[in-house]
Structure formats: C-alpha cells, structure tokens
Amino acid sequence: MCSVTLRPALPADLDALSALEQRCFDSDRLSRRSFKKWIKRQHDGLIVAETPERELAGYALVLLQPGTRLARLYSIAVDPSRRGQKLGEQLMDAAEDYAHEERRLYLRLEVRKDNAGAIALYEKRGYRLFGLTPDYYEDHEDALRYQKRLHYQPADAARLHLPWVQQSTPFTCGPACLLMALAALKKQTPNTTEELLLWREATTIFMTAGHGGCHPMGLAIAAKQRGLSAAVWSNQKGALFVDSVRDPDKKAVICALHEHFVKTCRQESIAVHYQDFTATDLDRAISNGKIVLVLISTWRLDGRKAPHWVAISGSDEECFYIHDPDPGEDQAPLDCQHVPITREKFEQMRKYGQAKLRTAVVLGA
C-alpha cells in the first residue's frame, strides 16, 4: 500500500498535475486549462495523492451533475512509477467517499474497452456494466460505461433500454424525446429533419421568449401519426403556457392552437386525461413497457425557469431516471443519460409555471 495523503487540489498543484497527465496518458489528456478551472473553483472533487516527499503520485476527478443524485468519475491517474501499490484503489475510495458525502446515489465512469486491468478493478469494487459508447476515445476505441450504487443496489434496477437523442436546437427538446421513443418502440433511426418536422407539428409557436415549445397534445398527435399509441395527462383543462405570456395576440394564437390540438385528439381517438399523472401511474406505465415524456421546469437543473421535455428511462424505489436531450454548455452527453432523480426532487421538478402545470405523454408500440 502506497503511503500518501489524499486532499483536494490546490493552486500550487497545477504544474504537477499537468506533468502527471503527460506521463500517464498518450491521448485524451486533460488540458492545463481544465485543471486550472477546477482548482480555481475550489472543487473538492479534484482529489490528489501526495507522497511524504511532497510529490504528486495520482489524482481522481469527480464531477457532480447539478439537480441530480449522479456523480461521474471523469478521470483517474496514477503515476507509472507508483503502479502496483494499490494507489488506484485508494483514489477510488476517496472518489466514492466524496460522491457519497455529496449525497449522490450513483458514481459512473467510462473505461477503454481494451483496458483489462482497470475493468477488473472496477468490477471487483462492485461497478456494473450498463452501456457502451462506440468510437469514444481519440484513437476510436470504444468506451464501456460502468456505474456503482453508493447506498445500496435495489432489486428493481432502472431499465436502461431507451436510446438517447440529443436535441439539435435550443427549442426541440420535445421532438428529441419523441425520437427516443420512436427509436425504442419502432427502431426508427433519429435524424435532424424528422426532429424539426415533429417540432413544426407539435409547437405552440409562442412561448415567453424565443421559439415556441411543444404542446403535449401536439406531441401525442405526431406520435400517433407515426404509428405509436399515445395518451395525454394534464392537470389543466384550458390552454397551456399562457400564464406568462403578456402579449394578447400571442395568447390568442396559443389558445387557437390549443383548441386545434384538442379537436385533433378527439378525431384521432387520443385519450386526454385531465388529471395529474402520479408517481404510481408512472411506475405502472414503465412496467407495462410504455415510454413516458414528462414536462419539467429546468430551475433545479440549471437555475432557469424554462419548460423542458425529458424522457423517462426507468425507475426504482428511490429514483426516476431521465434522458435529458439537452447537455447544455457544461455537461457531456453521457451525463444526460439515465440521470437518477430522487422521487421527492422529481415531484418538485415536474411543475411548470405559476399554474404549476403537470403534464405527460404516454407512448406505446
């Protein structure tokens, strides 16, 4: 066992971290600028291993995803001269302890498919394989995705069968989620043109600012026309998204489109339930193989009070798992897939606007 002190990185560690990164990796290196950013933020998840001789022997970098119970082991490195001394396990202990102290339920990581030693270490520590990302590294090697439940492993683990689709514009979260459902239920390959066509069919045209978002009935109609079964749940019966729109002309347009969607749902025999879609309903839909799209407020994710569609990829007794189609500026796509949200926090997230709109679209084959 290597005798080291594990502590958060300090500004004085920047040169040593950069040099260590050069010694440890031939490609996919973290830049000096990245290390400087995390040190400047006083990010306690950048953990260094310091020897009694004040040398840096390794580090682990854990990132926390805002608004979720998910942590990600973004990078871990051990100086080549220190390998074989179980320093990697010490750093993993520190990474898991940090994520646990920050009340994260899962720690996730990616590892090269050809890195047998690291894979053996992770599996020995209880990490479970849950995905593969082709062509992930600079040399085109695939990445295996592992995760570990930091508190306990529930009997009813999340179902991780739903493909993830990234929205290509700031306003097509709903269509991107519908493309996920079409990929899962109809094996349809997602594409940007279809995403934009779906938005054109389902949009309310106006929102508080920018392009209009998608109406739940609009999404249900678009899904039905592409061969899926669809049902809508809404705790409001009148026009949606009008409470924060001041312009009377814009309100008139939103109301007109709402009435059109109501009429079309009636014509297409799409069930519209004017009641809340509860956690029990969501669990039942998932167990029956349905894909559920839910409107949330992004306040607890990024501090903005914007309406945003996400797809539910699974559930267990403590969490719902979401596919968020929008990585934003600070997140990697991998951080937006199967994101664990505690049931309590999810209840808080799935209310939008002053009227506390709760709405969902339930899709089946």
Produce a short descriptive summary.
By secondary structure, this protein is of the alpha+beta class. The chain has helices at residues 14-24, 32-40, 87-101, 116-124, 173-186, 192-202, 216-224, 248-267, 279-287, 299-302, 343-349, and strands spanning 5-8, 46-50, 56-64, 70-78, 106-112, 128-133, 143-149, 229-234, 271-273, 291-297, 307-315, 319-323, 339-342, 359-364.
Describe the 3D structure.
Residues 4-151 form the N-acetyltransferase domain. It holds the Pfam family Acetyltransf_1. GO terms for molecular function: acyltransferase activity, transferring groups other than amino-acyl groups. By secondary structure, this protein is an alpha+beta fold. It has 2 domains: 5-149, 3-Layer(aba) Sandwich (Aminopeptidase), CATH 3.40.630; 173-364, Cathepsin B, Chain A, CATH 3.90.70. It has helices at residues 14-24, 32-40, 87-101, 116-124, 173-186, 192-202, 216-224, 248-267, 279-287, 299-302, 343-349; strands spanning 5-8, 46-50, 56-64, 70-78, 106-112, 128-133, 143-149, 229-234, 271-273, 291-297, 307-315, 319-323, 339-342, 359-364. It has a 7-stranded mixed β-sheet, with helices on both faces. It has a 7-stranded mixed β-sheet with strand order 9-8-14-10-11-12-13, sandwiched between helices. Helix 5 (173-186) crosses helix 6, helix 6 (192-202) crosses helix 7 (216-224) and helix 7 (216-224) packs parallel to helix 8 (248-267). It is elongated and about 75 Å long. Residues 152-158 have low confidence and may be disordered.
